[in-house]
Amino acid sequence: MKNLVGILLIGAAIALWWLSRGEANSRADSSAAGTPIVVPQPKPATPAAASEPSGTVAHAQNAEPTAAALALEIEQALREGSAAKRDRALYVLMPRLVASDPSMATQLALTREAGLLREELLRQLVRSWVLRDTQSALKWLTSLPEPADRDLAGAAAIDYLAQNDPASAIELSLLLGLGTRDGSVEHKVQLWTEQKPEEAVAWALARPAGAERDQLLARIAYVRAQQDPVEAGLLVLEQMTPGAARDDAIISVIHQWAMRDPATAASWVARFPPSPLQTRALAELETTAKQAPKQPINSSSPFPAN
């Protein structure tokens, strides 16, 4: 009997333990089910992060506008009439357009209606183009069909070239026939001779003999006579074609020489054979003697007889 009671007590204890274990598991499951699972979410992209890399953005902001965009901006600026915008179009945007697309720049200038703005566009076009590609610019302007456009563009190129390349400026003047009647070509030759006489003389002597070269040599001799009349006289006598132009150049040299050294100038003139030229030369000496200060006599002459 005692054994039976013991067995019943043990069974009851086991049953109570089993029931208490089930409740604990049930509470654990309920607690787990009531707690939400938090899944980390990526942070939303900021505007800076969503944009392109900073280097790419900076490059895009600083990129040079296309030729078409530059041409459109020039047209708009000229159309609005503001002096500031017009100057920017002419002196800032036009050179940039020439650098980007010379063909589009020429089209923009040539298709504009006649007037001062068109002329200034052509000038800026030529100056900018000559600076970047002289040969292409000169080839284009010499092929212009309209004489007025060709002369205007040529004058702009000549003025620009004269600053650093007087030989090209003078040659272009002669090619286009600009400045050959008003003394502009001779003036450029004179300035060049004053600055770099050896270059000017060598360039002139390399040109084909004829009236054009004689005209250039006469101006060079006039300039050189003020510093070295011996050189000037020999240049005229030995390099110029005999005739009226050479006679005029000789008289010019005599005048410059007599102002510096009348005795030596007179000695040279005395070697001339009797002729109308000698008569003119003697008259020039007499006239100059009234103007020039007294100089010591130098009886020797470095010149050959004419």
Description of the molecule:
The chain has 306 residues and is mainly α. Among the domains are: 65-149, no CATH class; 197-306, no CATH class. The chain has helices spanning 2-34, 47-50, 54-62, 67-80, 83-100, 102-110, 116-132, 134-142, 147-164, 166-176, 184-195, 197-205, 211-225, 229-239, 244-260, 262-270, 276-289. α4 packs antiparallel against α5, α7 packs across α9 (147-164) and α15 (244-260) runs antiparallel to α16 (262-270). The longest helix has 33 residues, at 2-34. The radius of gyration is 47 Å and the shape is elongated. The termini are far apart.
Helix and strand pattern: HHHHHHHHHHHHHHHHH
| Helical percentage | over 70%
Q: Count every helix, treating DSSP H or I runs of 4 or more residues as helices.
A: 17
* pLDDT averaged over residues: 81
* Tally of DSSP β-strands: 0
Whole-angstrom Rg: 47 Å
User: What portion of residues belong to β-strands?
Assistant: under 5%
What is the quaternary state of this protein? single chain
Low-confidence stretches: 1-9, 15-19, 23-60
The assigned structural class equals mainly alpha
